[in-house]
Amino acid sequence: MNITTDVVLDADYLLNRLAELGQVGDDLSEGGRTRIALTNADKAGRDLLCQWMQALGLVVRIDQIGNVIGLLPIASGSINEPLMMGSHIDTVRHAGALDGCYGVVAGLAVIKAYRDAGCLPERPIAVVAFTNEEGVRYQPDMMGSLVYAGGLSVEDALATKGTDGSRLGDELARIGYDGAVKPGQIQPAEYLELHIEQGPILEAEQLQIGVVENLQGISWQKITISGQANHAGTTPMYMRHDAGWVAASIHVFLNRLATESDGRTLATIGSLTLEPNLINVIPRKAILTVDLRDPDELRLQAAEHALKAFLQEIAQTAGVVVETEQLVRFNPVKFDDSLANQIEATTEALGFTYRRMTSGAGHDAQMMARLAPSAMIFVPSKGGVSHNPREHTDAQDLINGANVLLSVVTQRVGAHALIQP
Amino acid sequence: MNITTDVVLDADYLLNRLAELGQVGDDLSEGGRTRIALTNADKAGRDLLCQWMQALGLVVRIDQIGNVIGLLPIASGSINEPLMMGSHIDTVRHAGALDGCYGVVAGLAVIKAYRDAGCLPERPIAVVAFTNEEGVRYQPDMMGSLVYAGGLSVEDALATKGTDGSRLGDELARIGYDGAVKPGQIQPAEYLELHIEQGPILEAEQLQIGVVENLQGISWQKITISGQANHAGTTPMYMRHDAGWVAASIHVFLNRLATESDGRTLATIGSLTLEPNLINVIPRKAILTVDLRDPDELRLQAAEHALKAFLQEIAQTAGVVVETEQLVRFNPVKFDDSLANQIEATTEALGFTYRRMTSGAGHDAQMMARLAPSAMIFVPSKGGVSHNPREHTDAQDLINGANVLLSVVTQRVGAHALIQP
């Protein structure tokens, strides 16, 4: 057989199933869909996914944290050390239809291509939907893949209390997805995650595919500045201890640091509150958050150190007390070079425009990279918008991405015609 | 008679009445007192004040906006063109006992000194308590003196709607202070306002008296910055339209402008809110207030122009829309030179340490300066704190200030013993 011409993508299968899954948890009042982890809507999405896996004749495994894995065995019946594709199907509130779901459904579409061609791979293929990637109801996010990769024990994960007071393990049992398989027991030979970019770069540069070679490290801090409230009209500038001005100075400092980093460091102050927040009172307190990201750990540390030094200096200058609290810290992840190179070569062979790039957001692939060689493929997001009903990727872009995935898979695990009985 | 030795301050009268008035509207739950304009507590304060005026044998006049004026006639019975002293007795929420009340009660103490000495001035003396100086419930603030000076019509003032939906005129009638006298009908020959500094300068410089020669102009603006919300992890710095960063840049710009002005311009950003105010989302909107003050009108205008130019420039740089709204604009007020000089000479003659200074806050004197030569006398505020239960001035400082006022008054209007019947 000729893999390239015989094992082909069923684009309708991909698009129709994305649309169908997108209707589960449909949010009639505010638009989009809300399918938060381990709710009834999540159960409905999982049920649909399992039904599709069974229709493709896959071996379905549910592990103890609720990760759903569909496996296409090889001719011998082995499911060991599969090539694994996947992502997640839980969502944020009022989400788009593509975040996570695209990678899972495209994985099924790859297997569908094998089924349609009546052939089997020479190594098993798996499709996984990880539990609770979004972390809306239960912290931390990317939990299913974190447990899968051994970064969090099953017991601790199941004991997690939700924002609604519920215990994760109870909710998992309630929806019937408390499986028996030990997470990580199915050891992937490699992991591929196809995903929408959730950022504006591919669209802005009018490119079709992103070859994701790494994923930024993330450092989140909360900074509390305690100054002194005083009358705006009677307090000379030199006698002020203005917590708001210190916050503004931090903002300007970090923005300059990031802007001068040749685009590699990102710095965001997304949240800031002043007290008492009155027009004619110098703020006594400012609470802000800092989001620092860099694909290079040493550079991320350098940014953290530069911030720390700046805080010490400005606290002294302004006569304020500055306290910091680390909220989140993820090291950068470098994806597998040979996988990324193969994605790049395949993209080029298929005639798509592309660039190598860094993932700005967190993904399950960053956890799976601890277990196996991993990489990601991005397709453009219109306006860079995600976590929003307006999230959109053109159908042709979705099909292109799935074709890159299919081609990489067939190159890696081959295909041979089934012996007709 | 010898004015200096015969017409002397009764310090207990001053301090006891300040304490007694301070208990009206006592706020048992949160400390301080709350005597907001035209509430029952304000009525109780006014009633007490009128009672004290009557006990001193003053002619009491209530005008159409509720200003309370007590007049000490001269021997002929005339009350025309008095030397007027005063301030206000309404308060903010959880106020100190001194703001406003000090100037009114000290005025009564000056008259008490004449009564105790059994003498009369050669020109009439008046003490006034202006309605609604604080502007908590009804805008604008300094309303009673504004109407008195002809800056706002009685009709418009009475029609003012309060934050609680009430009409000022109705509330004034309800508490029985809708007088018949036309505001401004009693034309003062000069106006003197003794007040706590409400700022930290006298305390910091360890001075006893502030000779207030002018009052800053005030420019309040609301600035709304509309940028674009985006993912903090996936949006390169050069593609951002970060409303929060623009707000921070304005803050840093204005602070530098003020700091480099040799202490004459003050700039404060007291209030700032971001939307959506999430750690990993670039703010789409920032709303902030700017409080600019300068004792010189041309310099204040220069600061406003510099801000405007900066906003135009940064809006272009950041790709955001910046809208401004003027909330308040008062021109600076220069007090009467000869009055200020006389206060200074008197302060020196009494052996008090002092400085000439600018009032950072607004006061009724700035309105009265439109009608008659006016000036103010400041005493130290501990920690510069006001509008707060912790507002404090040492008793000796309160007595010193009243003695300066008394001495200036006796020099200007003289005193002659009453002919004993």
Automatic annotation (TrEMBL), chains A, B:
Q: Which UniProt keywords apply?
A: Hydrolase
Q: Does the record's keyword annotation contain Hydrolase? A: yes
- Signal sequence: where? none
Q: Name one GO molecular function term.
A: hydrolase activity
**What is any Pfam family matched here?**
M20_dimer
Q: Does the keyword Chaperone apply?
A: no
In its UniProt entry, what is this protein called?
Zn-dependent hydrolase
